């Protein structure tokens, strides 16, 4: 990923936002910050990474010196860390973008949903079925379109922010096999959200089930695909973002839950390794792509992600149920695949196994799709109750 291009663009935006807030021309900014006008123009030029919607790497390796950053900081009432990394919220945005870059890992589909055209936004939102009834039932008007735009901005935050989407386009890079395992563990964290897990598993299993050689009865049972996924192998970024017509918002919901649960652990790593690193005071040259890459690919980050996955299953009851869903889904997929390979006539793939249906019914009963679930004991008790009822029915039939 293009980490340096990202933070260069953020510095440029920060300097220009301050200049414009003061009503200054560029030569005024240079004079106020005690640098030459040509130097300020050069800094902006060196940091510019977007040219006609394309990323461009210039010949200047470093955009400004620590001394220049200190001069800007003094005039802007901050410090060198504020110039380079911005506010706490700016830092959180950077980390969120990096996590999104890891999850997508080179796929070309964007995880953002910003739509500038109000009419196009309304049409899209109705297809997605994520627009509340209070907007769907109102008479069509310009004020309705404005309110819908406001709703998405407030509800989806950075996912509906044109500027943040542009920053992600700067950051995103090509597929990196070294990020595959980390990407899949983050996907596992996303699947702690039941609604997203159900949607994603349906796409994944349908993709495997409808494989050309398997559907013709000529292929092998897809054990490798299943076990690769369970072993956190493979790249699923495009499938994660393959929303079809209706469930894009589930990904946003799942990511926001991930962030709410594990915000502290991820920010701690990037604060200690990047944002609060003393090396910044001596030279910005220290923060090149290889430094960011070392943090992203570090054992510390992967261990933290794995630990968070384990904690999800023991602490978060929704994650407990999605693990059941995943296990039962793959068992069912294996059974259906065996039937096809054995040349048995089967219907179009749908979730119909008894155990899988029980899990999905329980999720609906406990309100997973709209709210936090009940405690683990309630889930276990509900499962036991269902099993007991089955035993009673079997005995009655006998």
Structure notes:
With 398 residues, the chain is mainly alpha-helical. The chain has 21 helices and two strands. The protein has helices spanning 3-22, 26-32, 37-47, 66-76, 80-85, 88-104, 118-128, 133-136, 142-156, 162-171, 180-190, 194-209, 212-215, 223-230, 237-240, 248-275, 289-296, 299-315, 317-341, 354-365, 376-397; strands at 50-51, 54-55. A two-stranded antiparallel ribbon has the order 1-2. Residues 48-62, 343-353 and 370-387 have low confidence and may be disordered.
Strand and helix layout:
Elements: H1 3-22, H2 26-32, H3 37-47, E1 50-51, E2 54-55, H4 66-76, H5 80-85, H6 88-104, H7 118-128, H8 133-136, H9 142-156, H10 162-171, H11 180-190, H12 194-209, H13 212-215, H14 223-230, H15 237-240, H16 248-275, H17 289-296, H18 299-315, H19 317-341, H20 354-365, H21 376-397
Antiparallel strand pairs: 1-2
Helix pairs in contact: 1-3, 1-10, 2-3, 6-10, 6-11, 6-16, 7-9, 11-18, 12-19, 16-18, 18-19, 19-20
């Amino acid at each position: 990923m293009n980490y340096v291009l990202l933070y260069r663009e953020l510095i440029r935006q920060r300097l220009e936002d301050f200049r414009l807030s003061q009503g200054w021309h560029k030569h005024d900014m240079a004079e106020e910050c005690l640098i030459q006008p040509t130097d300020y123009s050069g800094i902006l030029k060196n940091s510019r990474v977007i040219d006609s919607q394309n990323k461009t790497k210039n010949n200047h390796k470093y955009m400004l010196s620590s001394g220049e950053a200190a001069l800007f900081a003094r005039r802007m009432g901050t410090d060198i860390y504020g110039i380079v990394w911005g506010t706490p919220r700016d830092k959180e945005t950077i980390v969120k973008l990096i996590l999104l870059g890891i999850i997508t890992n080179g796929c070309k589909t964007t995880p953002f949903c910003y739509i500038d055209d109000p009419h196009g936004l309304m049409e899209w939102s109705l297809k997605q079925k994520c627009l509340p009834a209070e907007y769907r039932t109102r008479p069509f008007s310009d004020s309705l379109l404005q309110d819908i735009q406001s709703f998405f901005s407030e509800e989806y935050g950075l996912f509906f922010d044109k500027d943040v989407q542009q920053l992600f386009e700067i950051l995103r890079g090509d597929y990196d096999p070294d990020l595959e395992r980390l990407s899949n563990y983050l996907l596992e964290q996303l699947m702690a959200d039941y609604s997203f897990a159900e949607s994603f598993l349906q796409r994944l299993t349908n993709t495997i089930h409808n494989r050309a050689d398997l559907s013709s009865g000529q292929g092998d049972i897809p054990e490798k695909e299943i076990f690769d996924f369970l072993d956190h192998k493979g790249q699923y970024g495009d499938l994660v973002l393959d929303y079809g017509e209706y469930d894009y918002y589930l990904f946003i919901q799942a990511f926001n839950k991930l962030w709410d649960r594990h915000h502290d652990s991820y920010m701690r790593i990037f604060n200690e390794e990047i944002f609060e690193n003393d090396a910044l005071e001596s030279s910005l040259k220290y923060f090149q792509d290889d430094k960011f890459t070392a943090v992203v690919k570090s054992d510390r980050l992967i261990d933290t992600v794995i630990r968070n996955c384990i904690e999800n299953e023991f602490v978060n009851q929704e994650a407990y149920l999605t693990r059941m869903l995943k296990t039962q889904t793959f068992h069912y997929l294996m059974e259906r695949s065996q039937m096809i390979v054995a040349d048995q006539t089967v219907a179009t793939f749908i979730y119909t196994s008894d155990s899988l249906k029980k899990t999905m019914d329980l999720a609906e009963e406990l309100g997973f799709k709209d709210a936090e679930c009940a405690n683990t004991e309630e889930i276990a008790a509900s499962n036991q109750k269902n099993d007991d009822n089955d035993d009673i029915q079997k005995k009655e039939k006998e």
